[in-house]
């Protein structure tokens, strides 16, 4: 590997490291805001929970009597 290629590799690594540092700073800024205002953390958690909730009727809702259930045996 020649000196020019080695210098290019170092430049790319430095650039990547600076991007990682910037991303970490942004994440820490968000974390700090959540600590300062817990309502934002609750809103974020609610949004995430709503997106990953399993499909189906809401808790406490009983399916109608006409609903069919198909049982599939797995052997």
Keywords:
elongated, single chain, mainly alpha
Question: Can you offer a commentary on this structure?
Answer:
This protein is mainly α and 75 residues long. The chain has a domain at 25-54. 65% of the residues lie in helices and 0% in strands. It has 2 helices and no strands. The chain has helices at 3-36, 38-52. The model has no long low-confidence stretch (mean pLDDT 84).
Secondary-structure-based class equals mainly alpha
Strand content: under 5%
Mean pLDDT: 84
User: Describe the biggest sheet?
Assistant: none
Which shape, going by the Cα principal axes?
A: elongated
Count of helical segments? 2
Stretches where pLDDT is under 50 for at least 5 consecutive residues are none
User: What would you report as the Rg, rounded to the nearest angstrom?
Assistant: 25 Å
**Topology order in helix (H) and strand (E) letters:** HH
Taking the alpha carbons of the first and last residues, their distance comes to: 58 Å
Helix percentage range: 55-70%
Q: Could you tell me the number of beta strands? A: 0
Quaternary structure classification: single chain
């Amino acid at each position: 590997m020649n000196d020019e290629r080695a210098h290019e590799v170092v430049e790319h690594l430095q650039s990547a490291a600076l991007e990682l540092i910037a991303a970490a700073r942004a994440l820490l800024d968000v974390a700090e805001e959540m600590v300062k205002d817990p309502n934002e953390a609750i809103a974020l958690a609610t949004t995430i929970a709503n997106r990953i909730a399993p499909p189906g009727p809401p808790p406490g809702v009983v399916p109608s009597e006409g609903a069919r259930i198909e049982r599939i045996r797995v052997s």
